[in-house]
Amino acid sequence: MDYLRRLQMERPVLYFILLLVGFFVVFQVVLAIARLLLGGFDLPSWAPLALVLAVAVLVARRQNR
After folding, report:
1. Transmembrane segments in this chain: where (predicted)?
2. Domain boundaries, the chain
3. For a FRET experiment, which of 9, 21, 34, 35 has its CA 20 to 30 Å from that of 54?
C-alpha cells in the first residue's frame, strides 16, 4: 500500500494509468464470469453487462448509506 501512495505522489500520471488499466481488467474478468454464469439461460448478449452494471450500482448505493 505504501508503494501505491509513493507512486501516486511521485508519478501521478503513471498511477492513474495503472489504476484505469486495473479497473478495466477487473471489469472484463467480472463480465466474463457473468457470461459464463448466464450463458446457459439463452439471454440476450447485453444481459451480462446489465447484470454487472446493476450490481455495481447496488454496491455504490449501499456504500453511500
Report:
1. 12-37, 43-60
2. 2-64
3. 21
